[in-house]
């Protein structure tokens, strides 16, 4: 016997809003969060724009001392998780916290801490490295800090699968509940890598867009796309078994029904498309979904030629050309290990609101893109079944299948 798994809460930190309401308002209106880099002087990197978090409401959940004990990616993770947790209504009276788990993701962890402390050791010597450098920087501390703040004592680990990590964390949490190892899970991902080392590393890999106009810097599936735009932030969802959610009278937001997880085993940074196709098929199979039933796909859509040539082909081969397709990275940038969870929230909200966001920067589709990319403006549509998919360096592929909630 397996359990049905539902979503009862979500939270988000992003360049387009730090509440679900603000986040959705931006997606609905077509307002992108991409703009000039302000976190540091980026001129020497050759990159001028990113999708930075703005007006982060630190005081809502944190005190000054927390900024010294958590890197920014952990702060984002905790904030999104607490918002999701509070929305869900889970507490120690209605939930056994020994069966409440937490799986959070980060592709890099505290990259800025590594940059700062590397400079310190070179300039001042090893004894000046911050005593808390390691617990600030290691990627699993998103999970650790969320568990500390919520009291989740069950299943606990971190996903570190590059750009697929945020989706992998939700898929893993889904399986823990489906097969009876947990009653409820906090899952998501976070990243804060818009620093000199992060931008320079991806820029020198020729992965980032050098476009100076923020409105067209990220243009998924466009014939003139030329690289991704770095983002930051976090997304988190609360998953529960249907039985547990109904027993406590929870407000159910969506159902997660399938998860596909594969590896291309092909190339360090370039996708083959074969693994993506297999992951999509696995998610559909587990969810009992026919390809023609998929209404909307929140694509990986990084605004790079390597990704979209293979992703568009995979969508065409597995789903066909009926489903609406958009990449919300055109709004919130590519938040690496946090992006899959941010996009999962966007996908769930798209189902709730029957609205597919536009590809914000896309003007003219590349030749051969036969898929149904949302252009010009967002589109009202009945969305009962949706996929959210992310593919990461190292060949990692993660596809989540959601259904609109129905008894």
Automatic annotation (TrEMBL):
SMART domains in alphabetical order: PKS_KS
InterPro entries in alphabetical order: 3-oxoacyl-ACP_synth-2, Beta-ketoacyl_synthase, Ketoacyl_synth_C, Ketoacyl_synth_N, PKS_Beta-ketoAc_synthase_dom, Thiolase-like
Top-rank taxon, per record: Bacteria
Biological pathway: Lipid metabolism; fatty acid biosynthesis
NCBIfam families: fabF, PRK07314.1
UniProt protein name: 3-oxoacyl-[acyl-carrier-protein] synthase 2
UniProt GO MF annotations: 3-oxoacyl-[acyl-carrier-protein] synthase activity
Pfam family, one: ketoacyl-synt
Keywords tagged on the record: Acyltransferase, Fatty acid biosynthesis, Fatty acid metabolism, Lipid biosynthesis, Lipid metabolism, Transferase
One cellular component term from this protein's GO annotations in UniProt: cytosol
Family as reported in the entry's similarity comment: Belongs to the thiolase-like superfamily. Beta-ketoacyl-ACP synthases family.
Enzyme Commission number: 2.3.1.179
Cited function: Involved in the type II fatty acid elongation cycle. Catalyzes the elongation of a wide range of acyl-ACP by the addition of two carbons from malonyl-ACP to an acyl acceptor. Can efficiently catalyze the conversion of palmitoleoyl-ACP (cis-hexadec-9-enoyl-ACP) to cis-vaccenoyl-ACP (cis-octadec-11-enoyl-ACP), an essential step in the thermal regulation of fatty acid composition.
Active-site residue list: 163
Residue span(s) of domain Ketosynthase family 3 (KS3): 2-404
Lineage: Bacteria, Bacillati, Bacillota, Bacilli, Lactobacillales
Catalysed reactions, semicolon-separated: a fatty acyl-[ACP] + malonyl-[ACP] + H(+) = a 3-oxoacyl-[ACP] + holo-[ACP] + CO2; (9Z)-hexadecenoyl-[ACP] + malonyl-[ACP] + H(+) = 3-oxo-(11Z)-octadecenoyl-[ACP] + holo-[ACP] + CO2
Presence of the UniProt keyword Cell cycle in the record: no
Enzyme class: transferase
Record GO biological process: fatty acid biosynthetic process
GN (gene name): fabF
């Amino acid at each position: 016997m397996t359990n049905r798994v539902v979503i009862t809460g979500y939270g988000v930190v992003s360049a387009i809003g730090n509440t679900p309401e603000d986040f959705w308002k931006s997606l609905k209106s077509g307002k992108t969060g991409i703009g000039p880099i302000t976190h540091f002087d980026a001129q020497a990197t050759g990159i001028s724009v990113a999708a930075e978090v703005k007006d982060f409401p630190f005081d809502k959940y944190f005190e000054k001392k927390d900024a010294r004990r958590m890197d920014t990616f952990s702060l984002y993770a905790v904030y999104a998780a607490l918002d999701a947790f509070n929305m869900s209504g889970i507490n120690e009276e209605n939930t056994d916290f020994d069966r409440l788990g937490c799986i959070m993701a980060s592709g890099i962890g505290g990259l800025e801490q590594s940059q700062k402390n590397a400079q310190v050791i070179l300039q001042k010597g090893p004894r000046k490295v911050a005593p808390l450098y390691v617990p600030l920087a290691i990627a699993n501390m998103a999970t650790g800090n969320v568990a500390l703040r919520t009291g989740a004592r069950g299943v606990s680990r971190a996903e570190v699968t590059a750009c697929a990590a945020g989706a992998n964390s939700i898929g893993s949490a889904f399986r823990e509940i489906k097969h009876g190892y947990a009653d409820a899970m906090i899952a998501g991902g976070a990243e804060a890598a818009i620093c000199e080392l992060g931008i320079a590393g991806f820029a020198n890999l020729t992965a980032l867009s050098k476009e100076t106009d923020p409105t067209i810097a990220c243009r998924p599936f466009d014939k003139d796309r030329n690289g991704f735009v770095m983002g930051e932030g976090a997304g988190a969802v609360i998953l529960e078994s249907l039985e547990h959610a109904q027993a406590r009278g929870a407000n159910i937001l969506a159902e997660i029904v399938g998860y596909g997880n594969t590896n291309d085993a092909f190339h360090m940074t370039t996708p083959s498309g074969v693994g993506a196709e297999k992951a999509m098929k696995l998610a559909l199979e587990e969810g009992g979904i026919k390809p023609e039933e998929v209404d909307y796909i929140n694509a990986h859509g990084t605004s790079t030629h390597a990704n979209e040539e293979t992703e568009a082909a995979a969508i065409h081969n597995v789903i066909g050309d009926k489903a609406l397709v958009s990449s919300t990275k055109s709004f919130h940038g590519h938040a690496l290990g946090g992006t899959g969870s941010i996009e999962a929230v966007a996908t769930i909200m798209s189902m709730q609101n029957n609205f597919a966001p536009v590809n914000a920067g896309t003007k003219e589709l590349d030749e051969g893109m036969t898929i149904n990319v949302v252009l010009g403006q967002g589109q009202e549509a009945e969305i009962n079944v949706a996929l959210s998919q992310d593919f990461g360096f190292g060949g990692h592929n993660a596809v989540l299948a959601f259904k609109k909630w129905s008894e």
